[in-house]
């Protein structure tokens, strides 16, 4: 059995004949930070969507900690231990920062969701619903203990971004700045205590000082031993935080290796610089 945390083999996904992800294979080891970079439209987000179960692959396999997850839906994949954030930042707008983070812990609950395994069985899915409702109203010693654990977990995640989210813990997400919404999203993902944290452009739309702050937070997560699969356009950040960098172009992996090696790979330089040259020529025409 592989000692990798995430193992992706021959992954494929097409959209109306367009091969967005064209038979890629890669892995993430426990505690490793792996970044996927590449020009626009090269298949990075589609890869994250496949790994997190947002869409289904048309071929290949995805294994997390030894379990096949490529046929599971995103809720089951979250239970397996993958948490993700989205390119455009997704939070529950009317929920407070604390409540958004608490939602992230839902997939980890056991005492408050004793029949959650039945949720996958269409005819029996009302049983866990009624069970959860009953426990929420009446409560059990175990569910009360779990309630305290949730409150501690929310505090711990807010503490991660204390200076920014601490004063805003009761504010509705719609009232937050864009950067704070993205921080809330990362805190919610971390509240799941994921084996693998999947981040899609966590600094998109952020200025330089906000980006530096995110870089420091990613370095802190890495120091905690958190495995991360990251898609990011800001190459300075990628080079500083990654153990390994995967470069995609046209749905394929064109280079892979340590940041310094990949940075000087001729195929990578061509994919980036050549594309820019083409865009300029197109603009000039
Ligand atoms: N739902 C979809 N329907 C049709 N085509 C899609 C869909 N999702 C992605 N694609 C196409 O698949 C290709 C890869 O897209 P993807 O979003 O994965 O690229 P990307 O590398 O993440 O790009 P960017 O850096 O711009 O976010 C693109 O040509 C895109 O237009």
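Q: What amino acid sequence fits the structure above?
A:
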């Amino acid at each position: 059995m592989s000692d990798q945390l995430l193992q992706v083999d021959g992954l494929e996904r097409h959209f109306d004949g367009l091969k967005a992800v064209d038979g890629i294979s890669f892995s993430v080891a426990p505690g490793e930070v792996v970044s996927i970079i590449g020009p626009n439209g090269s298949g990075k987000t589609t890869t994250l969507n496949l790994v997190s179960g947002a869409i289904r692959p048309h071929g290949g396999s995805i294994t997390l900690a030894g379990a096949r997850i490529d046929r599971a839906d995103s809720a089951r994949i979250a239970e397996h231990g993958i948490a993700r954030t989205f390119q455009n930042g997704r939070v529950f707008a009317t929920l407070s920062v604390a409540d958004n983070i608490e939602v992230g812990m839902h997939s980890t609950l056991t005492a408050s969701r004793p029949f959650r395994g039945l949720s996958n069985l269409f005819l029996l899915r009302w049983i866990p619903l009624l069970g959860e409702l009953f426990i929420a109203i009446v409560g059990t010693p175990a569910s009360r203990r779990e309630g305290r654990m949730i409150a501690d977990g929310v505090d711990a995640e807010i503490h991660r971004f204390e200076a920014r989210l601490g004063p805003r813990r009761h504010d509705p997400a719609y009232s937050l700045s864009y950067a704070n919404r993205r921080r809330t999203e990362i805190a919610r993902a971390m509240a799941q205590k994921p084996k693998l944290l999947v981040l899609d452009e966590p600094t998109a739309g952020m200025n330089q000082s906000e980006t530096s702050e995110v870089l420091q937070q990613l370095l802190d997560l890495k120091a905690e031993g958190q495995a991360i699969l990251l898609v990011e356009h800001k190459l300075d950040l990628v080079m500083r935080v990654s153990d390994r960098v995967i470069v995609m172009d046209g749905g394929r992996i064109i280079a892979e290796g340590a940041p310094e090696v990949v940075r000087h790979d001729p195929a990578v330089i061509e994919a980036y610089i050549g594309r820019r040259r083409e865009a300029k020529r197109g603009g000039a025409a």
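Q: And what stands out in the fold?
A: DSSP finds eleven helices and ten strands in the chain.
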